[in-house]
Design brief:
Largest sheet: 8 strands, mixed
Helix content: 40-55%
Distance between the termini: 27 Å
Shape: globular
Strand order of the largest sheet: 12-13-14-19-15-16-17-18
Strand content: 5-15%
Radius of gyration: 27 Å
Structural class: alpha+beta
Number of helices: 22
Length: 736
């Protein structure tokens, strides 16, 4: 972020500050405390006095420092999985040595060492909570020390002082956070970092309109590539591919990106993408869904997370804690009779823990690494809130509390950015909001696929439904990237859609008679055996009453269908609206009650656009929307997005006041001027990046299309000397 602070005095890289000394002492004491508790609880380990425990903590710090150079070599050779294996082995080895060589400490077996590591991590996590430290600080402590060492070395060598650093741009996506929800969280004191920005005037909180389909893949295609029109839903029947395409499957995400990328995305010219669905044409791609088959990136990027003492162990411990918290919160909803609600059991409990703690901590560590390395533009997607809000509701207490954790991540990244070689401007945005409401199945008594099958009046119809595995996306991306499998099916897909992918494999079976998909309160019905999208006249001839029956079904607000005579038509329970008829030819655009009016002033325009997207369903359905903005998801979610209605279309854009919104990119929405569509936000981000000198040759010599692994490894080698200097000062991560 821009800084008004005076330049720091130029000192040698070896110079210590009081903060460095305080970090070292606090880290040493907390590590010793954790070791002491673990030694007292674990059979097979004993210590005769507190001094021995303190000395063991010091040995852990020194051992970590000594092992870093060989671990870097192993990580470069073995990749991310090599970094994981080497890091875990190094942690056990360092702990074993510390407990074996220190006088007054005895250990009997390696299993006892593993138990000591886990318990120490737990005690340190509790200690950080009691102390009030940021949840993310321990993840980036090592990286932050390195950044500060670089800054001191630059000052000694006549390098740039803070107000002379070249600019950079950090874009943080808070997945699923609507503008009204963020404003509510700011008023409630749940996002103090963002609140400070707004109060000081350094940043402004704006909204942007997420067009239907208001889904993460459509919005990220727009934000990162300026190609939101390439995606019609979260999942759809792709006639060209001859199968269902589900965008949180790595192979399908790769297919979509190949179709839409022009090589000049937001992150071209040296940018970095972390934990995103698409790459934005970044040179560095880490945990990117569409690039999963290439692996999760160079091993050196992951080494600090996997090898720093107790960091991974603490992340795993907190992951288990998140699962316990989910079980408690889900039970509390049931006991209190909170409505609407959905079941919060089974694999979702595990997925919440892994996604909201382990993968978030890993993403935070990776972003910090890219900031320290000076990537011109960095984009990261944090999914915590979106995952919880789907199952709990967008304004329920546990969902709002998730924003508290995300705000802590922002605070941590800002502090890393302050010590980075670039002066980063921080933009916080979301891809859409969410709307509350009972599911369609709860309202109608049956899932959408059963309604369609019944109205088609063909008992033997072969129907396929997709729409139950969105929360598996981040884990699928990580596992597929880590495995980096080769062969016809190169991605690892877990969850309900991964059990039977018969319909996803061309030639494996003839296409079904009908395919039904749900993306929040946006549903689509496809007739895959037809070579093209059918019009109303053809549908009525084949299945009389299907469209009218769907429009009259409780929970459905309108059915969008193309017609041969008058173009797109929206059919509701009490009337129809022709969306491409303006009345100039004498034809009335509305007959009866206008089914589109309840969705807001932009609904007709959004539906016209949606109805002409490639691969859109033969029939497009929107759920009902209540006066309170409640909708009904065609999947098992009480907080949903994908269509229109409620707060799901009001996304967040928090930007530095110095980076103004260009008026030619704004439109009127309900009396407020804002960007409409992710493509407009993309254009604004590109303009900001260009204005900061981060596009093209001015981006600092970054090579478009450079090999991420080779470039990162080269950087890792160049950083080795500074790393050694930084590592000499223990901080708060691990023996920290």
């Amino acid at each position: 972020m821009p800084s008004d602070d005076p330049p720091r005095p130029r000192r040698g890289w070896w110079a210590l500050t009081l903060g460095d000394v305080g970090d070292a002492l606090l880290g040493l004491v907390t590590t010793a405390l954790g070791l002491g508790v673990a030694i007292a609880l674990v059979d097979g380990v004993a210590a005769t006095n507190p001094g021995s425990v303190l000395l063991a903590a010091l040995v852990v710090a020194v051992g970590d420092l000594v092992l870093r150079p060989p671990l870097r070599v192993l990580a470069r050779v073995g990749g991310a999985m090599g970094a994981l294996v080497a890091g875990l082995g190094a942690q056990v080895l360092v702990a074993w040595v510390a407990l074996s060589v220190v006088p007054g400490v005895e250990v009997q077996n390696p299993w006892a060492v593993v138990q000591v590591l886990v318990i120490t991590a737990f005690v340190m996590a509790v200690g950080r909570w009691v102390w009030g430290a940021s949840d993310s600080d321990y993840v980036v402590g090592d990286v932050l020390r390195r950044a500060r060492a670089h800054a001191r070395r630059a000052g000694e060598g006549g390098g740039a002082v803070p107000d002379e650093r070249p600019p950079g741009l950090l874009v943080v996506q808070l997945d699923g956070v609507g503008a009204p929800v963020l404003a509510q969280a700011a008023d409630a004191g749940l996002v103090p970092t963002i609140s400070r920005w707004l109060a000081s005037g350094s940043h402004r909180l704006e909204s942007w309109w997420a067009q239907a389909p208001s889904t993460t893949p459509a919005s990220q295609a727009g934000l990162l590539h300026g190609a939101a029109d390439a995606i019609c839903s979260f999942r759809w029947w792709d006639r060209e591919a001859g199968r269902l395409v589900v965008t949180n499957h790595p192979d399908d995400a790769a297919l979509v990106e190949r179709r839409m990328s022009d090589g000049r995305g937001l992150l071209a010219d040296g940018g970095a993408a972390v934990a995103t669905m698409f790459s934005g044409d970044a040179d560095r791609q880490l945990l990117v869904m569409s690039q999963a088959r290439r692996g999760i990136g160079p091993g050196t990027s992951y080494l600090r997370f996997f090898a720093s003492p107790f960091v991974l162990a603490r992340a795993v411990t907190l992951t288990v804690g998140e699962m316990v918290k989910e079980l408690y919160q889900g039970r509390r909803q049931r006991v209190r009779g909170v409505e609407p609600r959905v079941a919060r059991r089974g694999w979702y409990v595990v997925l919440r823990g892994v996604t909201n703690v382990l993968l978030r901590d890993l993403a935070t560590s990776l972003v910090a690494e890219q900031l320290v390395r000076g990537a011109p533009v960095v984009f990261v997607d944090l999914v915590d809130y979106d995952e919880i809000a789907h199952h709990a509701g967008p304004t329920r207490p546990e969902s709002l509390r998730a924003l508290e954790g995300l705000d802590g991540v922002l605070d941590t990244l800002v502090r890393v950015a302050e010590a980075a070689p670039r002066d980063y401007r921080v933009v916080v945005l979301s891809d859409h909001g969410q709307s509350l409401g009972p599911t369609f199945a709860q309202v109608s008594g049956q899932p959408l696929v059963d309604v369609v099958r019944r109205l088609m009046a063909e008992p033997g119809v072969d129907a396929v439904q997709a729409g139950t595995d969105e929360e598996w996306g981040p884990l699928n991306a990580f596992l597929s990237s880590a495995a980096a499998r080769r062969g016809p099916d190169r991605s690892m897909v877990l969850g309900p859609q991964g059990k039977d992918r018969r319909d996803d494999e061309p030639g494996a079976a003839p296409p079904p008679d009908v395919a039904v998909t749900g993306s929040g309160n946006l549903g689509m019905v496809f007739f895959p055996q037809a070579e093209r999208r059918l019009v109303l006249e053809e549908i009525e001839e084949r299945w009389p009453g299907l469209v009218r029956g769907l429009a009259a079904t409780p929970g459905i607000g309108l059915v969008l269908v193309d017609t041969a005579a008058r173009g797109l038509m929206a059919v509701g329970p009490g009337g129809v609206a022709w969306l491409e008829v303006d009345g100039t030819d004498g034809a009335e655009p509305v007959d009866g009650h206008d089914p589109v009016a309840r969705y807001g002033s932009r609904a007709a325009e959004d539906l016209r656009r949606l109805g002409r997207l490639g691969n859109v369903g033969d029939l497009v359905l929107l759920s009902e929307v209540s006066p309170a903005g409640h909708v009904h998801a065609f999947e098992g979610q009480v907080g949903s997005h994908g269509g229109l209605g409620g707060a799901q279309n009001l996304a967040v854009l928090v930007h530095p006041a110095e980076l103004a919104l260009d008026d030619d990119l704004l439109e009127d929405v309900g009396g407020a001027r804002m960007p409409v569509g992710a493509d407009r936000v993309h254009e604004q981000l590109v303009r900001w990046a260009a204005g900061l000198g981060l596009r093209g040759a001015s981006a600092g010599g970054a090579r478009a299309g450079a090999d991420p692994a080779g470039e990162a490894d080269a950087e890792a080698g160049a950083d080795a000397g500074a790393d050694a200097a930084a590592d000499a000062v223990p901080g708060r991560d691990g023996a920290a």
